[in-house]
Sequence to fold (272 residues):
Amino acid sequence: MYQEQTTRKPITLTALAKMKRNREKFTVLTAYDASFAALLEAAGVDVLLVGDSLGMVIQGRSTTVPVTMDDMIYHTRLVANGCRTALLMADMPFASYATVDQGVRNAARLMQEGGAHLVKLEGGGWLADTVRQLSRNGIPVCAHLGLLPQSVHKLGGYKVQGREEAAARQIIDEALLLQEAGADMALVECIPAELAARLTEALTIPLIGIGAGASCDAQVLVSYDMLGITPGRRPKFSKNFLTGCDSLQAAAEAYVRAVKSGEFPGPEHCLA
Ligand code: KIV
Fold:
């Protein structure tokens, strides 16, 4: 498998857009260091996400809020060191894009100092100007909608979003607005599967889902959840792929196969 991946062509946004058009699923997993990056890439993962979930799974914090720009740059650099062909996406941490200028400055740091290929921001329509300005500066963007973990204190907990029709409509409208502003991809977290299916059809850019059912163009999991090594209760939408596998790489390969075949996520992983 490793041989195969070293000869794989680098994954680009153009390639992912083509996969969406061809209704071919792609795979995303979080990575926080060079060894995991190399292992996940060798397993065939298309996109590595340096998620600010590192605050919880690496740093042991209770939320992603304390994660800083320096933390994100450090871990993105480590992942970039271990990654050759996967597309490298990095999270903009809490309050690092409060203004358009700050967003452009910090996104540029993630690319120049960290080696990211695109950045992910959490939020809705209010980010349109930032997305437009990032796009003009040649910085690819993924818009994270639905449950926004950086806003956990404002939301009053980690809750499914978009259950009511008005809230669902708002998520669709905001995603379309961000696509129009120049977003290259979108990611939805913890929304009903039926809403994710509508969104996948409405958007021309690829949609990545987590806790959003099987219709999305791609799936992402926190790799530590996928390996069953996150302390505490496993989220309902996740699955431990290490069960029945004899290595970490075999588990990541099982995840890639299950996503590409449409077997994961199953109905048991959907949030009502
Ligand atoms: O930070 C992260 O790992 C994420 C995923 C949960 C999508 O944003």
About this structure: The domain at 2-269 is CATH 3.20.20.60 (TIM Barrel).
